[in-house]
Design a protein that fits this description.
alpha+beta; single chain
Length: 318
């Protein structure tokens, strides 16, 4: 009789603990210690071999999940006996969990969907339902965002971290700002008075926006088109453009340009500052704003369109 058997008999005699339970506890402690050691060695090896932060994060999470799954199987094998008993036990446990843990299982299914389909990954800027932000973590039951928007304008960070259940991806639409096509379109409406030289204003705006668009070269435009073709996205123009329309207070010139999702506010600020300076220096361009004006058609209207003129009272031929 070796010393381990003597220890087991002593514990069983004086503490009333069965020998089999003692073996299971010892094996459990050993498995946990092996897990801790394997995790430490794995993470240390990954920190030395992988320099990129994003890749190291994904590799670390994958290693943790694999080690955790293997440990769970080993513990089930220890406590539930052979593989036949293990399969039967897992079947019974699964049926009970499916009823009692509906939401956690839905979140787990959401994690599987996020891992395989990958509608977004860590580092992407996304919006899901009413929540928007930058993804900073993805776990079995929830993912975390650094929130943007809400009470803060122009997609700026609020500083809050949102923990969102993975199951929400099955109930809400997911919008990804940065996947595949890494730019978003932004528009800035600029309204000038009817009396302004709107053609000159449009030329000024076109010159300004071309300096601030995210697409500065044919090579960059080619990269955008290749990325967009992966999702069958079709854009006629990637270069900035200024559209013309008429509002009740003047001529509206809408600037449309591509920008980095995280630079929307800063690019808009830079464009507006240049517009203010350029319009201040232009004598024939002025901003429009809501005003009240009394218009005398007889005195101010075009000669052939004034009320009471011969042409305006002359019957029109069919």
């Amino acid at each position: 009789m070796n010393w381990t058997q003597e220890v087991q008999q002593f514990i069983e005699r004086y503490l009333g603990v069965p020998a089999r339970l003692i073996d299971e506890i010892v094996w459990t402690v050993a498995i946990v210690l092996v897990l801790i050691l394997a995790r430490h060695l794995t993470l240390r090896d990954l920190s030395r071999r992988v320099d990129d932060t994003a890749r190291r994060y994904i590799a670390t999470k994958t290693a943790n999940y694999v080690l955790g799954f293997v440990t769970l199987l080993a513990l089930l094998r220890v406590w539930l006996g052979g593989f036949a008993g293990l399969a039967a036990s897992i079947g019974i446990i699964s049926a009970g969990l499916a009823i009692a843990l509906n939401q956690p299982l839905t979140n787990l299914a959401g994690w599987i969907f996020l891992t395989i389909r990958r509608p977004f990954s860590v580092g992407d800027r996304v919006q899901i339902g009413s929540f928007a932000g930058d993804v900073i973590d993805l776990r079995l039951f929830a993912f975390s965002l650094v929130e943007i928007g809400n009470w803060v304008d122009a997609d700026q960070s609020t500083g809050r971290i949102l923990h969102i259940p993975n199951g929400l991806v099955f109930r809400e639409t997911v919008a990804n700002y940065t996947q595949g096509f890494n730019f978003i379109w932004n528009e800035i409406p600029v309204t000038v008075t009817f009396e302004s030289n709107w053609r000159r204003a449009k030329q000024i705006l076109d010159e300004i926006v071309r300096q601030h668009t995210a697409i500065q070269s044919d090579q960059a435009a080619g990269e955008v088109r290749r990325a967009a073709s992966k999702y069958l996205i079709r854009y006629e123009h990637l270069t900035p453009i200024v559209w013309t329309s008429v509002a009740d207070i003047g001529v509206t010139l809408t600037i449309r340009y591509l920008t980095d999702p995280r630079r929307r506010r800063s690019s808009e600020t830079a464009i507006w500052e240049e517009i203010l300076g350029a319009f201040a220096a232009a004598d024939d361009v002025d901003f429009a704003y809501p005003t009240q004006r009394f218009y005398d058609n007889v005195a101010e209207g075009k000669p052939e369109a004034r009320a009471g003129s011969d042409r305006s009272t002359r019957p029109q031929n069919d």
